[in-house]
Design goal:
single chain, mainly beta, 8-stranded mixed barrel, 11 strands, two-stranded antiparallel sheet, Sortase, Chain: A, about 220 residues
C-alpha cells in the first residue's frame, strides 16, 4: 500500500514489516545457509519472474577480488544509486535488516561482492509510508546490470541471470546464502501478496546475478 491515511490494517503493517523480513532471513541462518559445499541446494516451489540462459555468457571466473565491504550499489534499470550499509546477526540469530525503507545493507558474514560465493544485499519493498528502495526490484530482467563499488575502490559488475519469487514458508536458504563455487550477488526483498489481516507479505523476491567484471582502483 502506498500513501493515504493510516487504517488499522496499515497500522499493523507498520509494526511488522521489518520483523517479517527478518524472520525469513532468520530461517536462512537457522538452517545453515552459510555452510559451504552444498552441490545440490534445495529448490522450493518458485515463481519465475525473469530468467536468462542456464549458462550465461561473459561470466567472470579467473578474477581476484579482495575482501572489502561494498560502499555503493548502482542499478541503472531502476535508477538506483545508494550507499550500502552493514548487516550482521541479531541476538536471536536472525539476520539484521535495514533500519529504514530507503537504505540497503550487505550481510557482512558472507563474502565480498565479486568473491567466490554468495554476497547478499537486502532492502525493503515498502512500508505503510510508501515505496521502499527495492519497490521495483521484481521488474529487473535477465541481463540487466548491477554495479557494486567496494570500499577499496574496486568496481564489480554483475549481470542478472534470473529473478525468482519464493513463498516465505519455503525460503531457499542454501540457494540464496550458500556458496556454489560461483561469484554471485543476490538482492533480496519482500514480495508476493500482502495479507492485510496479519500485516505480512507472503513471499520474497530474489534477484540472482553473476560477476562479469572487476576493475581495481587506479594506483
Amino acid at each position: 500500500m502506498v500513501g493515504g491515511s493510516t487504517t488499522p490494517a496499515r497500522a499493523r503493517r507498520s509494526r511488522v514489516w521489518m520483523y517479517w523480513c527478518a524472520s525469513v532471513t532468520a530461517l536462512a541462518v537457522a538452517l545453515g545457509a552459510l555452510v559451504i559445499g552444498h552441490s545440490a541446494p534445495r529448490v522450493p516451489p518458485v515463481t519465475v519472474l525473469s530468467q536468462g540462459p542456464s549458462n550465461p555468457a561473459h561470466v567472470a571466473t579467473y578474477i581476484t577480488v579482495p575482501r572489502s565491504g561494498p560502499e555503493e550499489l548502482l542499478i541503472p534499470a531502476l535508477g538506483i544509486h545508494i550507499h550500502v550499509g552493514r548487516l550482521g546477526l541479531q541476538p536471536d540469530g536472525a539476520v539484521e535488516v535495514p533500519e529504514t525503507t530507503h537504505t540497503v545493507g550487505w550481510f557482512d558474514r558472507g563474502v565480498t561482492p565479486g568473491q567466490v560465493g554468495s554476497a547478499v544485499i537486502l532492502g525493503h519493498v515498502d512500508s505503510y509510508l510508501g515505496p521502499g528502495i527495492f519497490f521495483d526490484l521484481k521488474t529487473l530482467r535477465a541481463n540487466d546490470l548491477i554495479t557494486v563499488i567496494l570500499a577499496d575502490g574496486t568496481v564489480t559488475r554483475f549481470r542478472v541471470t534470473k529473478v525468482l519469487q519464493f513463498s516465505k514458508t519455503s525460503f531457499p536458504d542454501e540457494l540464496v546464502f550458500g556458496s556454489h563455487g560461483v561469484r554471485s550477488l543476490q538482492l533480496v526483498t519482500c514480495g508476493g501478496p500482502f495479507d492485510a489481516s496479519t500485516g505480512h507479505y507472503l513471499a520474497n523476491v530474489v534477484v540472482f546475478s553473476r560477476l562479469v567484471s572487476a576493475t581495481s582502483p587506479t594506483k
